[in-house]
Design goal:
The complex is a heterodimer.
Chain A: H1 3-20, E1 42-43, E2 57-60, E3 72-78, E4 81-89, E5 99-100, H2 106-112, E6 118-120, H3 126-130, H4 133-140
Antiparallel strand pairs in A: 1-2, 2-3, 3-4
Chain B: E1 7-13, E2 16-22, H1 28-48, H2 56-61, H3 72-87, H4 103-120, E3 126-130, E4 133-137, E5 146-151, E6 159-165, E7 169-174, E8 183-184, E9 189-190, E10 194-201, H5 204-217, H6 221-226, E11 232-237, E12 241-244
Antiparallel strand pairs in B: 1-2, 2-3, 3-4, 4-7, 5-6, 7-10, 8-9, 10-11, 11-12
Helix pairs in contact in B: 1-4, 4-5
Classes of the chains: A alpha+beta, B alpha+beta.
């Protein structure tokens, strides 16, 4: 498994922790392990090439021990884009009980190269649009 | 990155902004349809605005016009409102606070109609975002579904989930932008259980209307939404918890994973 994929599974595991944390805990407490210490995982797919931005396949990260218990994720990359995340081990259920609100920061989205096409939210005013994420998307693609 | 030849356009109307995103090289018919769609939004604003004393809706509300004297679209929208009130057991109301105001139907309906204009002109792959309520058609790029971020209602600038799919409608009702403004029709007071609720389905007219009803309903919407075919939901409560319908994971990214 190449380092980029290992880093991706570690980042996703860290992100999952952040999502699962209660709101009174700060996101910093849930930071992913540094990429340098990222555990390697076992690829169950076939990486197409070692270039980190073109990799395709399904990868299972190592289980990471955390204060909230073990966490393991499986991610699918298509040409380096993260398309699917499955939590194999960790604090999750079927939404049957209340969860802390997931939070995807700009940094987390950038780390995953998540490509957002549009943003849904409570109706903004013309004034509110100016500082909205949708406005940033509209400008970025002009 | 936008595909080469893609068209982006942002249009101010109805007190918000409509963002058009048409993928693929535009034909003349598509360019014309975009102009028609923009003109349509302004016409809807003129007819349905509750902020303009001279709009047909304002005059109808004051009893100066009858429904029959209005444009045919007025009857169409009022019928949609009546249907929504029935199917939501009264949680949707076209007269919140006792005043005629079908705004909760109008925007989603206008966007879906604009989307149909583009589609009929050959724009098979596009997205229109009406101030946060989105109708997509087709996909973002060949083999690549649309990815719609859902704004985090408690952390401005962040997202709380990402909804992925083709031919999706996504609507969010919440207090983040305009404060508590959706009335609980049973109490005529602002609904306060939820910070926001996002509904995912196929047609924005339906999805947007249901989102308003679900927001008014609050936490009780959870059971009701499960009974609706083709609709999934993700909610953030006012006390910073999240819940979602069982099928939401098929579209959305959430801690439940797959």
């Amino acid at each position: 498994m190449n380092r980029a994929v290992a880093a991706t599974t570690a980042t996703v595991a860290g992100l999952f922790l952040m999502l699962a944390l209660k709101p009174h805990q700060t996101p910093a407490a849930a930071a992913a392990p540094p990429a340098g210490s990222a555990p390697s995982g076992s690829p169950s797919g076939t990486p197409s090439a070692p270039e980190h931005d073109r990799t395709s396949g399904t990868f299972t990260g190592d289980t990471i021990s955390t204060a909230r218990g073990p966490v393991q994720v499986r991610v699918t990359l298509v040409k380096g884009r993260l398309t699917t995340i499955a939590v194999l081990k960790g604090e999750h259920d079927e939404g049957a009980s209340a969860h802390a609100v997931p939070r995807l920061t700009q940094e987390a989205l950038a780390a995953q190269s998540a490509k957002i096409d549009a943003v849904s939210g409570a109706t903004f005013t013309s004034q509110g649009y100016i500082s909205s994420l949708q406005s940033a998307l509209d400008r970025a693609n002009d | 990155m936008t595909e080469p030849g893609a068209v982006r356009h942002a249009e101010h109307a109805m007190g918000t902004v409509f963002s058009f995103d048409i993928r693929g090289a535009p034909t003349r018919a598509v360019t014309r349809a975009l102009a028609d769609a923009v003109a349509w939004l302004h016409r809807v604003d003129e007819v349905f605005s509750t902020y303009r004393p001279g709009s047909q809706i304002s005059r109808l509300g004051r009893g100066e016009l009858t429904e029959q004297q209005c444009d045919p679209e007025v009857a169409e929208v009022l019928e949609l409102c009546r249907a929504a009130a029935r199917s939501s057991d009264g949680w949707f109301s076209a007269t919140p606070g006792g005043r005629l105001d079908p705004s909760a139907v109008v925007k989603g309906w206008a966007v879906e109609r604009a989307s149909q204009l583009l589609h009929d002109a050959g724009a098979r792959h596009h997205s229109i975002n009406g101030g946060g309520d989105i109708q997509t058609r087709g996909e973002a790029a060949p083999g690549q579904p649309w990815q719609i971020g859902v704004a985090h209602p408690l952390c401005p600038g962040d997202l709380t989930t990402v909804v992925t799919g083709r031919d999706l409608a996504v609507a969010t009702s919440g207090t983040a932008e305009r404060g508590p403004h959706i009335l609980n029709p049973r109490t005529d007071r602002p609904a306060t259980d939820l910070a926001s609720i996002t509904l995912v389905g196929r047609h924005l007219t339906e999805v947007d209307t249901l989102a308003t009803a679900a927001f008014a309903m609050g936490d009780a919407a959870r059971e009701w939404l499960r009974s609706l075919d083709g609709i999934e939901a993700f909610a953030v409560t006012a006390d910073a918890q999240a819940w979602w319908t069982p099928g939401f994971a098929a579209y959305g990214w959430c801690p439940a994973g797959q």
